[in-house]
Design a protein that fits this description.
The chain has 112 residues and is mostly helical. It has a domain at 38-108: Winged helix-like DNA-binding domain superfamily/Winged helix DNA-binding domain (Arc Repressor Mutant, subunit A, Orthogonal Bundle), CATH 1.10.10. The chain contains 5 helices and no strands. Helix 2 crosses helix 4 (84-98) and helix 3 (73-80) packs across helix 4. The radius of gyration is 15 Å and the shape is globular. This is RNA polymerase sigma-70 region 4 domain-containing protein.
């Protein structure tokens, strides 16, 4: 299965300036720079909460969005007592849902 567009981690580094992409989060109101990442985090939580519980859990663990670092398919499978293949299927299904234009537009407000 091919994705139509590549998926990037917000913690990956920009090729030229070598800063994390999350550092480029938009400042919508021109102030309160400390508030913007918190708003993005809340929006991301909203989007992830719109998924089925296991899909949300897999995405949070796979990409370290639970604050405990990213985990392998095997680690997540062990946590949930399911096969690695089931974890992979949950991940693929969740990523397809996250590409839905409504979800993308909702998050786009917080990213430059």
């Amino acid at each position: 299965m091919r994705a139509s567009k590549p998926v990037f981690s917000l913690h990956s580094r920009h090729a030229v300036i070598q800063e994390e992409l999350i550092d480029g989060i938009a400042d919508i109101d021109g102030g309160d720079n400390w508030r913007q990442p918190a708003l993005l985090r809340l929006a991301l939580d909203d989007v992830l909460d719109s998924l089925k519980p296991k899909e949300s859990l897999v995405i949070r663990q796979r990409y370290g969005l639970d604050g405990k670092g990213d985990r392998t398919l095997g680690e997540i499978a062990g946590n949930l007592n399911i096969s690695r293949e089931m974890v992979r299927k949950y991940e693929v299904k969740a990523l397809m849902k996250l590409k839905h234009p409504a979800r993308v537009d909702y998050l786009r407000r917080y990213v430059v």
